[in-house]
Amino acid sequence: MESSYQDRIPNNVSLGSNRTLQRALEHWQPEFLNWWHGLGPSDFNASDVYLRTAISVDTKGWATFGYVRMPEYRWGIFLAEPEADRRVGFGDNVGQPVWQQVPGEHRSTLRRLIVTQGDTEPASVEQQRLLGHTAPSLYDLRNLFQVNVEEGRHLWAMVYLLHAYFGRDGREEAEELLERHSGDADKPRILSTFNEPISDWLSFYMFTYFTDRDGKFQLKSLAESSFDPLSRTCKFMLTEEAHHMFVGDTGIGRVIKRTAEVMKELSSEEPETLRKAGVIDLPTIQKYLNFWFSSSLDLFGGDSSSNAASYFANGLKGRPDEIKYPDHVEADSLYTLDLPDGKGGVRREQIPMRNAINEVVREAYVRDCEKGLARWNRHLEEAGYPGGMTLPSTRFRRTVGSWADIPTNPAGEPIAQEEFAARQAEWLPTPDDRAFVHSLMGGVFDPGKMASWIAPPERGINAQPLNFEYVRFH
Ligand SMILES: [Fe+2]
Ligand SMILES: [Fe+2]
Is pLDDT of 231 > 90? Predict the structure, then answer.
């Protein structure tokens, strides 16, 4: 029993030597599989998918490729290797040894942080469950499923922490992670972005570019945590997240590249002409981008936050790449925020740096988002259409923080509510735009073939050719 369990759950946390933990996870595993069958990818569970599986954390083992049926994926539990003599990197206790157990006074806060992160992982699988049917190619279908099984593994990683370090309340939280469901009227997922269904592939690429990137920054902030098992768990998850953002980055890039090709062929920028030619016009792509960028910005929380300040002071959640900041305590430093003045303008206010941590992380995120924009716009420049895509202001269409519900244009200038209502259709996807994007979606399942609205990728997965049979149906 023990050895077969060890085989099923590859791990580097000595599961076999901890009977209580092993029993708890054995109990949770069938519930997880039940959830996967009910709310995971619909209809492709009998197919063989060319997936990578992590079987260890070293460079050889973390990406082992082969055909797997998704329900048989080996959802392992991996923590990055421990760092010898690791010390608290920020806040009031900087320089003290990190914690191998949860300090009593931080127990409920740490549990909440882990549950909130953990909740997003299965939520995204639920949001994407029907997408397989309309995949633009076998290559994309495989990438979708890779993302899905790894989000499942990230759920396992968080459930491991809950079971191993939080006793009975941890076990209860682990069960509830399978009981809340994306979009459920009674028991929705915790964060609202994760309750929006993702029913077309343009949204899927936007989600993996913008929303998984929020995930990257949350994981980087938690990787700085003084609670060492959480830090090590998040560090290893980041290696897998990189591929999810790659799927989004190259996905949006391929959509734009294909549109640019057809613009050049027809020498037209006219949305109607391009739509008739079976590609997505640039204004529609920009509107999707505006929607997903603004919705992902909200995930960082309020720009002035006493919670963020206490997470920082107590060493629970830091800034990504804390080592790069000159001051790790920020006891008296200040940060300047631009806030709405309540009269249709902007005013400046200085707040304690510790209260502005969410905003600092959000800024780092925005800079990271800009890199993709530059790549995508190169496709347009090459086709002779400079200008291209832009990121809207961080004040645009916010529902969290000081700019929540303050109408602005995409440049971030406050405007009247009437103007926002009148011009919304220029800035955000309309029902008509969504209907058009949906009309393009139809599964393309012949090896090497692509849907009309997307360019092929530059290379295949794991050096396989583009016409490789990434998914085998039965
Ligand atoms: Fe994840
Ligand atoms: Fe992800």
Answer: yes
